[in-house]
Amino acid sequence: MTSPLIPSLSGRTAIVTGASRGIGLAIAQTLAAGGANVVLTSRTQEHADEAAKQVEGPGTAIGHQAHATDEDAARACVDFAIERFGSLDILINNAGTNPAYGPLIDIEKSRFAKTLDTNLWGPILWTSLAVKAWMGEHGGSVVNTASIGGIHVAENLGVYNASKAALIHVTKQLALELAPKVRVNGVAPAVVRTKLAAALFEHEERVAGSYPLGRIGEPEDVSSAVAFLASDAASWITGETLVIDGGALLGQAGV
User: Which candidate among 9, 127, 196, 209 keeps its CA 20 to 30 Å from the CA of 89?
Assistant: First the structure.
């Protein structure tokens, strides 16, 4: 029996990209707790296997090596999920990167390209493969991990935020193109306690104090929302990006 806070995903198969730690690992754990079989991807098989060992629940968890922008590896992962579990019902495009920290006018093309390749092309690639291999015929749910950076501006994060703004738009575009068989939604977290955001919470007390709810996010804050969007509980929701930010976009607390 699943927790009343986790929708039932029994019999579903999910792929979570970038699932070796942080938000991706938490999503995999929550989906498995809901009964889904989960394939966790990472850039190395070792890290994927280590992450899968941390996942507990009624669902089975298996690690699979696949870089987010490697088309051959992504196709092999999609094929593996379908062959191993008999379906591919849920795709979580979570893998992301941010090598382009600094003012826009100082960013080299190589760092710009890497950010857009991972954060935007990756979700398009994986969604295309999942739809053509299974979801287009049988239906499914896609959830993209965006960021509140895609909704507002922030110093030194221009390229990253632009990639996430584009991902929010792509989420809507794919939702329109793939309806009614496939639902496509997103989540937009604020600062969450992950390795990617570590530089942003070096001064955690100051950051947390600026949020109306008084703390930075935890990966589980995001994973529960993702599980909801992936489930039948959200069966009439598509093209939306759910903000999960502790009230950050409302403005600074106490001002």
Answer: 196
- Collapsing DSSP to helix, strand or coil, 20 comes out as coil
pLDDT tens track for 5-15: 788 999 999 99
Residue 114: C-alpha distances to residues 68, 91, 120, 154 (Å): 11, 22, 10, 20
Q: In a 10 Å sphere around its CB, with 0-12 CB exposed, 13-18 middle and 19+ buried, how is residue 118 labelled?
A: buried
Is-catalytic flag, 101?
no
Confidence class for position 207, pLDDT limits 50, 70, 90: confident
The pTM is what? 0.94
The yes-or-no verdict on residue 72 having pLDDT over 80 is yes
- Active-site hit among 85, 126, 160, 211: 160
The helix-helix angle for 219-230 and 22-33 (nearest 10°) equals 50
